[in-house]
Amino acid sequence: MTNSDISNIKTLLSTPKKIVIVPHKNPDGDALGSTLGLYHYLNKYNHDAVVVAPNDYPNFLKWMPGNNAVVIYESEKDKADGLINAADIIFTLDFNALNRAGDMVEVLAQSECLKIMIDHHQQPDDYATYMYSDVAISSTCEMVYNFIDRLGDTALIDKNIAICLYTGILTDTGSFRFPSSTSTTHRIAAFLIDQGANHSEIHNSIFDTNSYDRMQLLGRALSNLKVLKEYHTAYITLSQAELNKHNYKKGDTEGFVNYALSLEGIVFAVIFIEDQGNNIIKISFRSKGDFSVNEFARAHFNGGGHTNAAGGRSELDLKNTVEKFITILPQYSKALNHA
Ligand code: 5GP
Ligand code: MN
């Protein structure tokens, strides 16, 4: 985003606007934290800003300030369409291709209003009027902080904004452990703590609110863990029956794939989760080092994401999806042995 883009946006925001802020489908901590952080910031300027999320999300993300004002497209379509059609500006946060907005893709694509993308995923599509895209930054929340900073407004960052932005930085950096978490990330986190984000409470709200069912499902997932030593790869499967047995709720499998990646010597970890409702297998890919799961997911499983974290899907059944995956691996033998 150039200085002239910033100056245009500053001019644009100098009078009250109707603004819709959109996270990606199945929003995570970064998607919700960034949209809600921006929401609190814009409403300080008397804009009429609202977050419209494509679909519902897990309870461990429902405590953030502003959560009650989020409009869920899936359940309030007419209201949401009205907001989008009346908007002067649409911000799309934490995604860079409109099809990541689920059922909102059409109404977003046909809207001719000004669009601003803030995102850190690879290979952005070209739909936004102004694009702040940087794959090197830890999280969209860190980028929203930078955006507010470039607009000269860090003094406006209050407790609510700080809590939301800290949350997304925390979740997208894997609690500050991924390489994308830089000294700048830590300085921004420190600033957000100074503005009132309680790091301990936030961590607790996200990570220490497990249900017994979820822990049992994790046990099942770990029992299903398989290692392909030759490829430094480990994978987990969860069938719909296994999910049902443990009363699966949205978000329950979040982070499971990291257990596979935590095995010594493993550089590529995958979880395959059966979703009979949508007739697909949802796949999460994680890696360490140079092995690009973004490229792997794009090439074989209709997905994408980052170098070390990506998602995708398969329309085959669970067994055949895993077989397809295993068949593909030899092509990557060299890369996996040098990652
Ligand atoms: P997760 O595995 O947690 O669903 O996603 C990991 C990362 O990949 C996230 O940054 C997410 O936004 C991205 N991602 C997940 N699924 C897809 C997909 O189907 N397409 C693309 N382009 N990115 C995805
Ligand atoms: Mn993100």
UniProtKB/TrEMBL annotation:
Domain DHHA1 per the UniProt entry, residue ranges: 240-327
SUPFAM superfamilies: DHH phosphoesterases (SSF64182)
Keywords: Hydrolase
A molecular function GO annotation: 3'(2'),5'-bisphosphate nucleotidase activity
Pfam family, one: DHH
EC number assigned by the record: 3.1.3.7
Keyword Hydrolase among record annotations: yes
DDH domain boundaries: 18-169
Top-level taxon of origin: Bacteria
Alphabetical list of PANTHER family matching this protein: BIFUNCTIONAL OLIGORIBONUCLEASE AND PAP PHOSPHATASE NRNA
Protein name: Bifunctional oligoribonuclease/PAP phosphatase NrnA
The organism of origin for this protein: Mangrovimonas cancribranchiae
